[in-house]
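Task: sequence design from structure.
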């Protein structure tokens, strides 16, 4: 308990202070580079200066980000929540510290230069960096490194939103994916620590504050449910576009620094007519909750521009997340829906704020795969049950559609493209990470077609096996020799039969267990997928044991007490 509490306080404090520093640095850059609306207004007497910086700042920022990733980062790409999830789930270290620091630095530059990306992905990774230092400690606490990373992530989210409960749930819902007491207690301590530092010590304001009387008409819950389905379809389109842009740009533009520069140029040119697309869009997010702040046409243009530019910036290689843009896009879709229902159709409603918040959280929850977190963020920011319930309805209907039509989250689909598939459950992904080639039997009997059948039979009997694997002169599997299976023969070649089941060196434990249904035999031969060379054999008993051992380890981790 002392160790976990100490880790929670340390990681939570460090992650919270680092998150605050990142936000302040971005704010300073936004002001100095004329990205922030207030700074642009102060220089409106020099329109040529504002126009020039609007185009050049994101373009040059993109060029620098691309060059830094290419020449200074061993990973040569931005790092984010998928890397954190992979490290925690498989108890691996995060990518190198140098790559993490470079990614954080380029995230500050990307956000400061006005790229259409979010700050919460970099915050999550920054919090994970401080938690990851625990993997160097030998304190006798199982899974300490994963728990410490969860603490850092929870503190970062708590600091960002002034929402400690949401920070706890995000760490468990997205990163740890279980609620074991051994993890829940320190993660809670870390999240509260982040909240105290941000809200009590530094007195930082919340991202946005909503004052709303709540739902006035009962039928509006049905409208909010429909809004949930609408934002789900928009989120699916957004995520598919985001995933498609990166590979497409990589085919068209060979140099990564030119890809980010081109994306920055697109942002700058668009911002000449629509400055709301610059940066995180916090001011736009706050205005979206005010009745009549945006006209119908302006909302449509903003939704389309922000969706396309965010996908372009992230796909091109800018450092940043998709959560902040998701909040903005979702809120604008909510305003669009409210405008149609209330202004065009004339349906009495409770105001734009309800629909902006519901659309915001419905869209964001579909993207990050954290419905409980999004619901709690609303409650902690508004302290209003009616608003929270309305957002909850939108979140539920949004996730019902997006989960079935796309996947649990953008992060899960990104990991699936790396060969880590959580769609069938956390345990299935862990089984799929284990390769059968790691369980080869050292006593498996091999022979050639020219070997004497009696000699091979004697070797089998001495080792307690019933089958020998027959190889040719190149080491390629020919078949299986079973004494007496085809009759009496003097040479092995006369009694060779086909192997009933063959695994490749890429076969994982989950696939192997599925294919073992109905199999009867000593072992299954394992061959190279590239050239068919025999690598060894794995017994059914060893595979079952590995399956059971990994299952026990997962259950122990998911139910561990302090």
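Answer:
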């Amino acid at each position: 308990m002392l160790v976990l509490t100490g880790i929670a306080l340390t990681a939570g404090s460090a992650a919270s202070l680092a998150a605050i520093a990142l936000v302040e640095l971005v704010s300073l850059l936004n002001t100095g580079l004329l990205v922030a609306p207030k700074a642009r207004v102060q220089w409106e007497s020099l329109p040529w200066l504002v126009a020039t910086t609007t185009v050049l700042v994101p373009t040059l920022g993109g060029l620098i980000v691309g060059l830094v990733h290419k020449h200074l980062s061993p990973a040569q790409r931005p790092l984010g929540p998928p890397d954190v999830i992979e490290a925690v789930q498989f108890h691996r270290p995060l990518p190198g510290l140098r790559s993490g620091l470079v990614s954080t630095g380029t995230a500050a530059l990307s956000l400061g230069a006005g790229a259409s990306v979010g700050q919460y992905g970099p915050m999550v990774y920054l919090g994970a960096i401080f938690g990851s230092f625990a993997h160097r400690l030998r304190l006798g606490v199982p899974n300490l490194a994963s728990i410490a990373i969860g603490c850092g992530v929870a503190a970062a989210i708590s600091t960002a939103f002034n929402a400690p409960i949401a920070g706890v749930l995000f760490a468990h819902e997205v990163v740890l994916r279980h609620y074991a007491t051994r993890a829940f207690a320190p993660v809670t301590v870390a999240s509260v620590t982040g909240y105290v530092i941000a809200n009590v010590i530094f007195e930082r304001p919340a991202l946005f504050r909503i004052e709303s009387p709540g739902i006035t008409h009962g039928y509006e819950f049905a409208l909010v449910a429909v809004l949930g389905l609408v934002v789900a379809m928009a989120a699916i389109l957004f995520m598919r576009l985001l995933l498609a842009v990166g590979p497409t740009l990589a085919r068209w533009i060979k140099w990564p620094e030119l890809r980010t520069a081109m994306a920055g140029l697109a942002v700058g040119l668009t911002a000449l007519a629509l400055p709301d697309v610059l940066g995180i869009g916090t001011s736009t997010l706050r205005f979206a909750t005010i009745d009549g702040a945006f006209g119908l046409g302006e909302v449509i243009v903003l939704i389309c521009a922000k969706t396309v530019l965010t996908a372009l910036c992230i796909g091109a290689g800018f450092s940043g997340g998709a959560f902040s843009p998701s909040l903005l896009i979702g809120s604008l879709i909510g305003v669009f829906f409210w405008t149609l229902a209330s202004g065009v159709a004339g349906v009495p409603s409770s105001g734009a704020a309800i629909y902006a918040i519901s659309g915001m959280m419905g869209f964001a929850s579909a993207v990050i795969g954290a419905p409980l977190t999004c619901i709690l963020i609303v409650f902690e920011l508004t302290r209003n049950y009616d608003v929270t319930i309305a957002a909850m309805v939108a979140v539920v209907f949004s996730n019902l559609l997006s989960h079935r039509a796309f996947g649990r989250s953008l992060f899960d689909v990104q990991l699936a493209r790396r060969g880590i598939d959580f769609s069938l459950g956390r345990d299935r992904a862990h089984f799929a990470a284990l390769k059968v080639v790691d369980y080869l039997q050292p006593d498996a009997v091999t022979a050639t077609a020219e070997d004497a059948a009696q000699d091979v039979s004697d070797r089998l009997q001495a080792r307690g096996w019933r089958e020998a694997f027959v190889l040719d002169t190149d080491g390629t599997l020919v078949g299986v020799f079973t004494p007496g299976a085809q009759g009496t023969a003097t040479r092995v070649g006369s009694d060779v039969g086909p192997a009933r089941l063959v695994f490749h060196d890429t076969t994982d434990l989950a696939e192997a267990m599925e294919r073992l249904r109905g199999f009867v035999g000593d072992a299954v031969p394992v061959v190279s997928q590239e050239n068919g060379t025999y690598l060894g054999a794995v017994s059914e008993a060893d595979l079952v044991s590995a399956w059971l051992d990994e299952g026990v380890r997962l259950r122990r981790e998911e139910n561990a007490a302090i």
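DSSP finds 22 helices and seven strands in the chain.
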